[in-house]
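Quick illustration, no need to memorize.
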Amino acid sequence: MPSLDQIVRDRVGTIFGRAGVARFSMHVEKGKSIQKGQFLIAVGDGRIILSRVIDIETRVTETIGQCEILGECEDSTLKQCNKPVRAGYEIYNPSGEFLSKLITRTTKEEGLFIGRILTHPDFVPVYYRPKDLRVHVLVSATTGGGKSYTLSVFIEELIKKMRKNKNFSIIIFDVHDEYSGFVMPNQNEKQVKALKEFNLKPEGFENDILIFDWENNPPYLSPIFSPDRLMFIFSMKELRLALQLRQLMGEKPQMHIDELYRLVEISDLHFQTKQALLTRIGSLRASGFLSYKYIKPNEYCVPGKVTIFRLIGTPLGDLGIRFFVADIVRQVFEEKKLGKIKHNVILVVDEAHLFAPAKGKDDPVKEILIRVAREGRKMGVWLILATQSPRDLSDVIIINCSTIIALKMQRHDISKLSQLFGIPKKLVEVLTSVSPGECFMKAPSFTIPLMVKVRPRQSSELKADYVNYSELIKKVQEVAKRTKQQILKLRKERVVEKKPTPPSPPQPKPTPPGKIPEPSPPRVYETPRKPPRPREPRYPPRPPTPTKHRRTEDETLEFVVNIFADQIMAYDYAVYDLIRALLTYGAIDIYEALHYVSETILDSLVADDIIRLTDSKVMLNLDKKIEEYTGKRLSDAQLEIAKRKLKSLLNL
C-alpha cells in the first residue's frame, strides 16, 4: 500500500453522527466544496475507505454531504467494507494517480483515451480497455446529449489502435448522417483549444475511412434470394409465405429475384398469397437496392479500416434501412461463423431502438441483433449501440452490454439507469442536468462506475455552425468515389488472380488404318442428386430494369441470359472452362466434361437446368431456357446472339 501522502490530496471534512458499512454523513470544511459523484477518501483507525458523494445539503452555517461507501483500499485494490466507519474519520480528496490506478486500471499505452474524471479537482484521464468491447457497448442520451459525439471519440481512438494493429475493422450504420466528419480535422476554435488540455491536436482520418452512399458509391445488395432472405424484412407471422416460396423453388436453394417474381407470377397460388408475394418481391425489384454490382463482405469489411454506410436517401425509407442493416449484419455474422472473415468486426448501430425495439414482436431484424449480442463475443463480432432511451431498446440486448455510457437523460429514465449502474437514484439524477459530453460510464475493467467528461473530438462534426459544409461534403464525396475505385480495382485483381487459363478439349485418339473404331460404352448416369448450396455469385450481371410495358423479344432474350449467367456464377471458376467448351463446340462427350469438373458438380449443373444430357452428350441448356420464357423456338441467329451475350457476361 502506498503511503498516505501518495494517496490523499487535501482534507475537505470529517465524519459526524451515525455511520455504518454502507453510508455516512460528513461536515464540509469552510472554504471547501464538494459535488455529487465526487470520490473521497475517509481515513481513520489505520483504514483507508473510498466513498462517493450522493447528496449535498446546504444549511445556514455549514454544508453536509451524504456519502456511500464503495470499499476499503488494501494493497491498491478495493475490497468490501465489513467494519463500520466512525465519527471523527477525516475526509480527503484522493490523488488523481491513486484514483486512476484504483478505478480504471488501464494504462495510457493500452487504453482508449475517452476523457477525464468529471468530479475530481485534478485532471485524471480515463482510459478504456479495448478488450471490454468484446461484451458490447451501449450509449444512451436524449437529443443533444452528445451521443454521436461520444461514439465519434470512441471510433477516433479505435482508428489509432488499428493503425498499429490491423486485427479488427469497424462498420458504422449512419442513419442520420452524423459520422462523415471523420474525413476532416476539427475546425471549432473552442474545441481545438480544449483539445490542448488533453494534449491532443485536430486530426482528420481520411485515409482510414471507406464511405458508401446512394449518390457516389451505392452499396447495392445481391439480387440472388433464398426464401429466408426475402422474408428477412417481414414479420415472422408471414413465415407461411417463405414456405410457399420454398415449395415453388423446389430443390433450388436460391434464385435471381427476377426469376423468382416470374415463378410466383405463373404459379397457381391463392390470389391473396400470390399478390402478397408479388408486392414484396416487386417492391424490392423496383427499389434500386439490387444490382449485379453488389458489395461483398471482403469489400466493406477491411482490416484496419472504418466503413461508413451513409443511409440517408436509402430506397424504401425506414423499411429499406431496416432491410439493409439486417442484411449486412447477417452477412458479417455468417462469414465470421464460417471463418471467411479472419479479423474481429465492430458494428456501430446508431438509433438501435429502430432495429431492436423493446416493444412489439420479434422480427428477423431484431433477432439477428439479439443473436449477435448473445453469440458475437465468442465469434469476434462486437456491437456498439446507441439509443435515445434504454427503455426503448430490447432488454435482451441491454443485459448483454457490459459497457454502458449514459449522457444527459430524461427523468423517466432514472430508475432504469439506476438498475443498470447499480448506484442510488439520487446520484443518477445528475444526468438530467449535465452538459453535453458529461456522462456516467460503466465498464468491466472499471472497479466502479465513473462520471466522465468526454474529451473533444479531433475530427470535424458534419452538422455544426462552425463547419464549412460544402467543403466537408466535397471531401466526403471524394472519399466515397475513391472507395468505389478501390473496390473496382480489387475485383479486377481477383478475376486475374483466380481465373485459370482454359485447357484445350481432349482430342480423341486416332484409329489405326483398316481398324473399325470401337464405340464408346454407354455411361449409366445417375439421377441428379440435390446440389450443394451454391456460393454467392461472384459477378452477377445487372438484372434488367423492371418495366411496366410488355417485353420485346430482344428484351426477353437479354433477361433470360442475365438469369442464366447468374446461375453459372454461383459456381466456382472451374465451371467456366466447361461452359466455354460447350459454347465453342455445342456438345461434348460426358467423359470429356469430366475433365473439366467433378461428377458432383456435373450433377448440380444438371439439377440447376444449366446443362442437359442427350445420348451421352453434354449440352448447354441456354436454348431451352429461352424457349421456355418466350414460348417460341429459337432461330440459329438468335441462339448465336444469346451465346455472345453469355460469353460477354462471363468474360469468356
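The chain has four domains: 4-103, 122-219+295-478, 224-289, 499-509+522-652.
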